[in-house]
Structures are given as structure tokens and as C-alpha cells.
Automatic annotation (TrEMBL):
It comes from Cladophialophora bantiana (strain ATCC 10958 / CBS 173.52 / CDC B-1940 / NIH 8579). Residues 51-147 form the Methyltransferase domain. PANTHER family: METHYLTRANSFERASE (PTHR43591), METHYLTRANSFERASE DOMAIN-CONTAINING PROTEIN-RELATED (PTHR43591:SF50). It comes from the Eukaryota. This is Methyltransferase domain-containing protein. The lineage of its organism: Eukaryota, Fungi, Dikarya, Ascomycota, Pezizomycotina.
Length: 283
């Protein structure tokens, strides 16, 4: 048996169920409340648009975007698996979904250069070893010349505990954050690329990177969104230390710590990244 459980981000996100889908709705709502928009207000909407949403999940963003755009717009959500896609019979007439692995750097020839807007959100757990270029290559293949990229991210390396009062204990929340980042390092999730969007997007024009602070009123909601994801990580933990000796904690130990984290959160502790990174660029 391998010393550490292998992390394949494509397989991991393929397997997410309705719990994760529910979290994605909460996450979408939080991003919208934090930014104040669904589609960036600088993007012109005065002509028919073709819009792609990469890693769309359950389509929370693209369905809402369809309500803001004229009915002449055509919107397509792409994801590596279809299990979270809504039934097509329930969708607006101008919205559809399709399976596509956007981390290959390729796209079908019939999609090349056909989109006016590409939207991306939260690939920080999918990009390994700071290698964001395959994803960006897919974006450039999809976009028309002069097309727009709208991208939202968070930098997990900025995770911190926030307390309403200095007397509240944060020990287990801090331990959880350290553990998650440690495991991330072991499996190859690195976040340097999130600090250099201008360099990563060097084939784009007018790259705008804005760091938007998280409103304190939504600290609790952002924390709960994060905790749902942390709870899912438990299934990746070995049930016995001897099964994977280099893994820093067993499943039982992780769940025990997680219960103590929940107690601290009940006392008002928040677990949040520093800010939301909003990127806008033109190809």
C-alpha cells in the first residue's frame, strides 16, 4: 500500500454528491454577495453573447447569468462529470451543459474561438504544482479574439481564524487549518500561482486583479461553506495509522478534531481566507 493516499483532483471532484452540490449553491450566493455582481459590469452586453462556465458544477452561476443576459445569449456549462447537471427539461432555453475536462489544455474543434465570455471559479484545489497553464490554454482556445475572462479565486494559504472576542479558544480551528494545508502540500496543491495572475495571464490584455475583503456579516456562512468541504476530506483519511504511516492523522483522529472545531465555531470562531480574488482580462 502506498505511504499516502493518492490525490487525483479530477477523480475527487467527479465523485462529489448532492452534499457538495448544496455547498456550491451556498458558495455561489456568498461570492455574489461579496462581489455585488454575477457578470462583471465592465463586460458589454449590447450584442448576442456566447458564454462558457468552466468547472460549472450544478450550474449555479450560469443559470443566474442567463437571467441577467438577454434571451439572445447562449450559455454552456462545462464540467468533468455530468452528475450535478440539472435536468435539461428544467433549464432556460438558452442554457445547456456538456462534459469537458478543461485541465487538458485542449478543446473540441467546434468550440475553438466561439465564446465571448469564459467564467472560472475556484480551481485552487484542482491546479497541482502551480501548473495553471493547461487550464488557461483551454480558456484561450475557447475565447474569440477580444473575448473576456472572468475568474474568481480564494488563496487557501491565507486562511486564518477570526474571533469576535479575544477570550475565545481557536486551538482546534488553527490545528485544522494547518493540517489541511499540510495535506495539500503532500498531494501537490500549491498556491503561488494565485499571487501572480498578471504573469499567468500574460497572453491577455488589461488584466485586472482585485482583492475583495469578505464582509464580516458573512463570516459564519463562509466558515460553514469551508467546513462542509473539510468534512468531506475525512473519507480520504486512512482508518488506521498503519495503513498509511506518512499520513499525519487517521480518519478517527480527524473526525475527533473536527468535532472540537465545530464547538469552537459555535462560540463564534470563523475560518476564512483573507479575501476573494476577482480577475477580469480580455484576450
Amino acid at each position: 500500500m502506498s505511504a499516502t493516499p493518492e490525490y487525483n483532483p479530477r477523480q475527487f471532484w467527479k465523485s462529489r454528491d448532492f452534499h457538495n452540490s448544496t455547498r456550491l449553491y451556498l458558495q455561489h450566493w456568498l461570492v455574489q454577495k461579496t462581489l455585488g455582481y454575477v457578470l462583471h459590469p465592465s463586460i458589454p452586453q449590447d450584442r448576442p453573447l456566447r458564454v462558457a462556465d468552466l468547472g460549472c458544477g450544478n450550474g449555479a452561476w450560469i443559470i443566474e447569468a442567463s437571467h441577467e443576459l438577454p434571451s439572445s445569449a447562449e450559455l454552456t456549462g462545462f464540467d468533468i462529470a455530468a452528475h450535478n447537471f440539472p435536468a435539461p427539461e428544467f433549464l432556460p432555453a438558452n442554457v445547456k451543459f456538456s462534459v469537458l475536462d478543461v485541465m487538458t489544455g485542449e478543446c473540441p474543434s467546434d468550440l475553438t474561438g466561439t465564446f465571448d465570455i469564459v467564467h472560472i471559479r475556484f480551481f485552487n484545489g484542482i491546479v497541482l504544482n502551480n501548473e495553471a497553464q493547461p487550464l488557461i490554454a483551454t480558456v484561450t482556445r475557447l475565447l474569440k479574439p477580444g473575448g473576456w475572462l472572468q475568474w474568481e479565486e480564494m488563496d487557501p494559504s491565507t486562511l486564518a481564524t477570526i474571533t469576535p472576542r479575544p477570550d475565545i479558544n481557536t486551538t482546534y480551528c488553527q490545528n485544522l487549518m494547518g493540517l489541511i494545508l499540510n495535506i495539500g502540500t503532500m498531494v501537490g496543491t500549491k498556491f503561488d500561482w494565485l499571487k501572480s495572475f498578471e504573469n499567468e495571464l500574460d497572453t491577455f490584455n488589461n488584466v485586472q486583479v482585485k482583492h475583495v475583503p469578505l464582509p464580516p456579516a458573512y463570516h459564519k456562512a463562509w466558515t460553514e461553506n469551508y467546513l462542509i468541504l473539510c468534512e468531506e476530506i475525512a473519507e480520504r483519511m486512512p482508518p488506521a495509522k498503519k495503513a498509511a504511516p506518512n499520513v499525519p492523522i487517521t480518519r478517527e483522529g480527524y473526525l475527533d478534531m473536527f468535532e472540537k472545531v465545530l464547538e469552537e465555531v459555535k462560540n463564534g470562531v470563523a475560518l476564512n481566507s483573507k479575501d476573494l480574488i476577482a480577475v477580469l482580462a480580455r484576450y
